[in-house]
Write a structure and sequence with these properties.
CF(0); proton-transporting ATP synthase activity, rotational mechanism; cell membrane; 2 helices; 173 residues; rod-shaped; ATP synthesis; ATP_synth_F0_bsu_bac
Length: 173
């Protein structure tokens, strides 16, 4: 009886084991179909979304870095252009200043030359006037001294000799 009991216990244990095994396999298939696959798909989609977001963030960061580099380059170029504009303005101002100075200098020389020419002309006119006055005075004096009228040619000769004498005296001074 003990043998039968052991045999019965073994067979019932075998049946229970088979039942538990079949129930476990069935439960595993149901969990795989209704829980594991959707959870795995959801995790895969979440992984893809996070990867996509990270890629997008990297792309945006790279774009921002490129934009930063472009702005820095543009800023450097604008600084160089500003320096060039200032240098050109200084050069232009210096050129203009030099032109104005040169023009003023040439105008001053022209005025000085004109003044010298005017002074020379005034001197010559004064000399001619003095010559006429002296000639007339000398004719008057000579007429009174000599008591007679001088002829025109005598008068011209007398004037010319007096002028030569005046010029000689004036040049020695």
């Amino acid at each position: 009886m003990q043998n039968n009991l052991l045999l019965a216990a073994q067979s019932s244990s075998l049946g229970d084991t088979l039942f538990v095994l079949i129930a476990f396999i069935l439960l595993a298939l149901l969990v795989k179909h209704y829980a594991w696959t959707p959870i795995t798909n959801m995790m895969e989609k979440r992984n893809q979304k996070i990867t996509g977001d990270l890629d997008y963030a990297d792309k945006e960061r790279q774009d921002a870095e490129n934009l930063k580099q472009q702005r820095e380059t543009a800023l450097k170029n604008s600084k160089v252009e500003a320096v060039q504009i200032v240098a050109n303005a200084k050069k232009s101002g210096e050129t203009q200043r030099q032109s104005i100075v040169d023009q003023a200098h040439s105008e001053a020389q022209e005025i000085q030359s004109q003044a010298q020419a005017n002074a020379q002309q005034a001197k010559q006119e004064a000399m001619k006037s003095v010559q006429k006055d002296v000639a007339q005075l000398s004719v008057d004096i000579a007429s009174q001294i000599i008591g007679r009228e001088l002829s025109v040619s005598d008068q011209e000769n007398l004037i010319d000799s007096y002028i030569k004498e005046l010029n000689a005296n004036h040049e020695t001074k």
